[in-house]
Every structure is written in C-alpha cells, then in structure tokens.
Amino acid sequence: MSLHKENVKSKRRSGQLRYRWNNYKSGYLFMLPWVLGFSIFVAFPVGWSLFNSFHNVKLRGGKFQYEFIGLDNFRRILTEDNVYPVELLLYFQEMLLIIPLILFFSLVVSLLLNQKFAGRGPIRAIFFLPVIFATGQVLMELFGQGAGELPFIEQYNLDGIIREYVGPQLADPIMGVLGKAVIILWYSGVQILIFIAGYQTIPRSVYEAIRIDGATPWESFWKITLPSMIPFIGLNAVFTIVDLFTFPMNPVMEQVRKNMFDVKTGYGYASAQAWLYFTLILLLLGIALWITYRSTVKRGGYR
C-alpha cells in the first residue's frame, strides 16, 4: 500500500516538473546566458568575499594569510565603526525617498508619451538619451562639474527654510534628494520604456467597453490602467533599487573601497561591509517583490 502511494507521489512530482518545464522553458532559456555568465565569472569572487568576511586577511610576503574570526568583522562594523553605519543609514534614507519619486515620475511621463501626438517617437528618444550618455565615469564628471545641482536651492535658501520647518534630522535626507534631483530625470529612461511596453499589454477593447459604460478617463486609469501596471511597477522598483544602490557616487561603496586597502581593516573587514550592504539591499528587494506579489494576487493575477 505504501509502495503504491510512493509511486503515485513520484508520478505526480514528475508530472508537475513536466508541466513547469513546458510552461516556463522559454523563460529558463532566456535566463541561461546569465546563469552561465554568473557561474563562470561572478560566483567565485562572490563566494571568496563571503569567505573573507569571516576572516582577518593579511597580505604578507606577496601571499594572503587568513585567520578565522567568525562574526567579529560584523561586530566591529556595528559597534566600533563611526563612519560606515552613518553613511549606510543616510544613503538608505535618501534612496527610500528617491525610488518612489523615480517610479512616480516615470509612470506620469510614460502615460503622456503613450498618447498619440506629433513627434512622439523623437520625444521618447530624448527621455531615453540620458541612460546612454550619463553612465559611470561620465556621470561622475558631470556631477563633479556641478551639472547635477539645482540653482534655485541656493537662490531661494531652501536649505534654511526646510531646516526651520522639518528639523535638521529630516532636512539632511530631503536636501540630499533635492541635490540629486537631476538623477530622477537621468535615471528614469529605462523605467519609462518598461511602462510604455506595459501599456501595450492592455487590450484596447477593455477601454472601449468601459467608455461605453460611461467611465471617465480618470476612472479608466484607476480601474484599468493602474491595476494592470502593478507587475511593471514591481519590475521597475526592482530595477531602480539595483540601479541606484550600484550608483557610481555611492558613499557606502566608497567606504568599502577605502577599507579594502587600509592596513588596519583589509579585505576581510571590507568584505563584511559589502555583505552587510548586500543583505540590506536583498531585504529591500524582497519587500518590493512581496508587495508586488500580494497586490497581483489580490486582483487575481496568480492562480
């Protein structure tokens, strides 16, 4: 009897695997190049940095020497380091303000660019141009020359006004966001493109049906457009989190670089800092995916 049950379970499991493969094989094949690239070029350095984070790494005689110290690097980061935790907290505060602004800006602009008007193609290209030009070293040079600053902040003494009304603790992250306001424009190109692609998945017949029922454009946006865009908002949230937390002017990554070549800290301490940073980003990504999943399930997107 028990053998029969085992056979039934085995057949059911193999049937589920066949069903998943038949439904998701295209997705798996699209992921294959990334999986190969990660396995060959990234997996070993990532594993080695995790190994380093539990060791005190010294370079002596041209060779690395490893001393296992467990979680001591992480303890020193959280209890003895006076710079890294502060930079980490301030950067997360700024990013948690900038990410919703980028998503909102991208959604609004993509709605406008999805309308039919003369010159729509060139205008879409203009919004995507910063993604091509303002990357890496180019972006750092532009910010170094003051291209990312907004002149009206100093002209109207916004710093003093904000500090007076919201206090210094909230004023610092707000001023940090205003100081990087140009990033919202420069880092919205891909998100706008994804949102525009998302609008094409909504059948025109749905809009026609709701107009026949007497719905206004405002109502059709809340009832049709926005719910249909939830998976794309989640996708853009994930992309924006990854993009901003690997920003070339990232002060947290700068701290990791400094400690890597400091004789008092070294590779082990810097690796622990990097893994702490990575864990927090992973947690943020998990929250974004969970919210997207719950929102999609709520409207019947998954069965």
User: Strand arrangement, largest sheet?
Assistant: 1-2
Quantity of strands, as a count: 2
**Distance between the amino and carboxyl termini:** 33 Å
Mean pLDDT equals 84
CATH fourth-tier homologous superfamily of the largest domain = MetI-like
Strand percentage = under 5%
CATH C-level class of the largest domain is Mainly Alpha
How many structural domains does the protein architecture include? 2
- Oligomeric state of the chains in view: single chain
Structural class: mainly alpha
User: What is the overall number of helices?
Assistant: 15
Query: In CATH terms, what is the architecture of the largest domain?
Result: Orthogonal Bundle
- Report the biggest beta sheet as strand number plus sense, adding barrel if it closes: 2 strands, antiparallel
CATH topology of the largest domain: MetI-like fold
Kindly state the percentage of residues in helix: over 70%
